[in-house]
What does this fold into?
Amino acid sequence: MTELLAAIGYDRWILHILLAVPLVGMAIVIVSPTVWARHVALVVSLVEAVLALGLWWAFDPSHGGMQFVTRLPWLPQWGISYAVGLDGLSLFMVLLSTSLMPLLVWGSWNQIDFKQRGFYALLLALKTGMLGVFLATDLFLFYCFWELLLIPMYFIIGIWGSGNRFYASEKFFIYTFSGSLLMLVAIVAMVWLIGQQTGTYSFGYEHLLAHKDLVVRQSPWLFVAFALAFAVKVPVFPFHTWLPDAHGEAPTAGSVDLAVILLKMGTYGFLRFAIPFFPAFALSPQVSAVIVALAVAGIIYGALVSMVQPDLKRVVAYSSVSHLGFVMLGIWAATVQSVQGAIMVMIAHGLSTGALFFLVGMLYERRHTRLIADYGGLARVAPMLATVFTITAFSSIGLPGLNGFVGEFLVLLGSFGRFPVATLIATSVVIFAAAYLLWAVQRVFFNPLAHPENEAVRDLNHRELAVLVPMVAAMIWMGLYPAPLLRRTEAAARRYVELVSPHIAAPVQVGAQR
It folds into this structure.
């Protein structure tokens, strides 16, 4: 396979094609008859997924730097280029995004019954934005893709959402756009400050990284501007309040996209930009203590609030706050194990939480309610649905043998040396994760069949199984044999650690700072 890909020059054109195909598909969807909109979107997303699969073989896991690099002048007078590339930090975000797209379209097959062309066109536009964030190596281009995401997601929530969708979409937009503006100011300021001292004004990632020492004096406020934009997107506690509303009111495809990819943009931003650009400040004892305290607070808060939610979709939504706290802990520990663990948690969370949102959407299709109290005994009438939901819940809580365990174990193992107290607290909170999800599974599927409406709930059909089975298979594969993923992330994780490790202070104990 590697020889075939090399023979067709795969590395020279694949990234551009991945960015272009969804936009071409969006244009086709817009001009197609409404009845064909979802079919066109499915074909386009399948083509995209098949093309992206070649990255698995074409990517060189021994190389920690950027691969498939292209840099073309765009606005050369301002130092702006069309520059894209891929490394181990972004590889799996791209593969996850492209493989998810056909499942999103298929999972929405019967849920979107009006303005279908607009929905699927926005979904494809969203895909280009997401891929662009992970591929851009020019900060102006990165910012363009970052902002591009807001528009389709705003309309997806606001038009096809449920309940209080207008409030949720506006809150999502205001929170994320406000943080993004601060990041834009910091990007421009950084380019200008470095340009004043080097004579070269460039938004290129490698150029700015090579000259990051020239902005050490300004690093506190530059880092804060970057960090706020990424913290809102993660979301880090207490910047999380937009997330439950957005998840709760978005259509299933919107919730899955938020969980699988959009939240990972924040953690990716910390790994790629905020810490490598300003490591001395970001990894100082004071800042590390604050970030790790917020990460642990998010882990605890997300788990405890999930336990008391009456709405099944909000249980899953708040669980994201808890899971992504582990990612932040792993990033700040800055060991090879913890960084690889953080990446694995990002992938595992995308699969398990994405599948949970699909399942909640399928339950809502059948009963038109998300209240846990309205269910009970569904395992008797829908055994396949109960089985898939239970396996996915076990994956989410980190049961050994499934994908959630690998990443969290590596994060805790790699973080203990630097943050022993925080790691012990985070480890204990895993018990709460088991409590809120197993309690929800018990009440929905294994309690007595008390409501007559539940007796007619149908089991999973072939289309729904086609959506869920690949995700469950990936959860089991990652849990039993994570070595191929770890090989492809190790070099990039080592490069990140080598870049920031000279700036890591002594071990930090949260709550012990004076």
Q: What stands out?
A: Strands lie at 67-75, 80-86. Confidence is low (pLDDT under 50) at residues 506-514. The chain has 23 helices and two strands. The two ends are 57 Å apart (CA to CA).
